[in-house]
Amino acid sequence: MDHQPTDFDSVISGAGLVGLALAAALGREGFSVAILEAREPVHDWPADSIDLRVYAISRASQRLLESLGAWPAIAPLAQPYREMQVWDAGSEGEIHFDSAELGEPDLGHIIESRVIERALLDVVEGTGTVTRFCPARLQTLEYSGNRQHIGLDDGKSLTARLLVGADGKHSRVRDLAGIHVQVSDYGQQALVAVVETEKPHQETAWQRFLPSGPLAFLPLHDGRCSIVWSATSSKAQALLALDDQAFCRALGEAFEYRLGEIRAVGDRVLFPLQAQSAEAYVKPGLALVGDAAHVVHPLAGQGVNLGLKDVQALADELHAARASGRNPGAFTVLRRYERARRGDNQLTLAAMSAFKQLFGSTLTPVRLARGLGLKLFDRATPVKAQIIRSAMGL
Ligand SMILES: Cc1cc2nc3c(=O)[nH]c(=O)nc-3n(C[C@H](O)[C@H](O)[C@H](O)COP(=O)(O)OP(=O)(O)OC[C@H]3O[C@@H](n4cnc5c(N)ncnc54)[C@H](O)[C@@H]3O)c2cc1C
Hints:
Blueprint: E1 7-13, H1 17-28, E2 33-36, E3 54-57, H2 59-67, H3 71-74, E4 79-81, E5 83-88, E6 94-98, H4 99-102, E7 108-112, H5 113-127, E8 130-133, E9 138-144, E10 147-152, E11 157-165, H6 172-176, E12 181-197, E13 204-210, E14 213-219, E15 225-232, H7 233-241, H8 244-254, E16 262-265, E17 269-278, E18 282-283, E19 286-288, E20 294-295, H9 303-323, H10 331-360, H11 364-379, H12 381-391
Parallel strand pairs: 1-2, 1-11, 2-8, 5-13, 11-19
Antiparallel strand pairs: 3-7, 4-7, 5-6, 9-10, 10-11, 12-15, 12-16, 12-17, 13-14, 14-15, 17-20, 18-19
Helix pairs in contact: 1-5, 1-9, 9-10
Flavin-adenine dinucleotide binds next to helix 1, strand 3, strand 12 and helix 9.
Subunit structure: Component of the Ubi complex metabolon, which regroups five ubiquinone biosynthesis proteins (UbiE, UbiF, UbiG, UbiH and UbiI) and two accessory factors (UbiK and the lipid-binding protein UbiJ).
Keywords: FAD, Flavoprotein, Monooxygenase, Oxidoreductase
Protein name: 2-octaprenyl-6-methoxyphenol hydroxylase /2-octaprenyl-3-methyl-6-methoxy-1,4-benzoquinol hydroxylase
């Protein structure tokens, strides 16, 4: 017999990092929560393997993970990066960020997605207030009598005062709620892989802007690097088709051999790149968080970080509503969350698109201005400090 409860304060659809963090935050505060996830989580993996999904986690995200009690399980597998080196293929411009200049121990951490997922799952399991439905897919949705009526693909029905769509960029919750999403295709794909380099990564995150898109090398805790090579779709396909040796040569050259020769490359995977923005984040009894609400270019590594900021903001509003006896699904409560987050997310979306345009241009005046701008910027210590602190989410 099935003893799982079916009525909740909140149902969260999607147990990616954003959905799990929200479940942990609400569960720890005593909300009754259900979390639905279509795929089984990964608990174990071979010791020498690296997840292809690797994230640059900001200081603000680290603080949230600390406050949830997830950080101690993550820290031993997190690689701090203390410096950032960014340069332009089309000009002389180069910028260098150093955590020492800011009086900070590091600029952030590079962490495998599955490491954060496992740590958050453990926190969620420990709350005693979160019920996991997995594998389960949300299929139908109806809002009536101040309750969301949710149908799952296995025939189960759940009800909740608040349904949260944390189900990623193809969000079913968003579609069923009739929330329109603006999509603009960057015309690029990101090739992701783990590589071994001749020289050590020096605890530095490296990024070179090429005319076809940015190429990033992120330092991993086992000494290797995770690369994200964004390029026009045809170029990305061509890179994917190369044999390992030819790919390593092309990568080394594109990276100007800053870390020497590329000695080995693992599996290569392509991700299509799009910018997306939901026209609304909330409706009565419903909120969108993370990629369901907004998708940005990975060039500044902000996607998960923005999603975790959504989690913090929504959890804060729900706690405040509860403290004053208000319904967590009330539109006025949810609108406060939307107002707190939409501006920041839109700004990041616009900045990423502008960056892509600026560095994608091969026009001589743009290239010259870019080189000069980067050089001036590199010398403007207070401006640099301000920018990097904002990227750290501080
Ligand atoms: C190449 C690349 C590099 C990136 N690098 C970075 C980086 O360095 N730093 C960073 O912050 N961000 C980065 N990002 C962005 C980051 O991947 C996303 O922002 C992040 O994964 C969004 O998390 P999410 O939990 O909102 O969505 P997702 O990770 O997409 O999770 C959604 C979950 O919902 C589940 N789901 C979907 N539909 C249903 C349904 N109907 N029922 C039940 N479950 C469902 C899915 O199985 C999934 O587990 C990168 C992205 C790309 C493409």
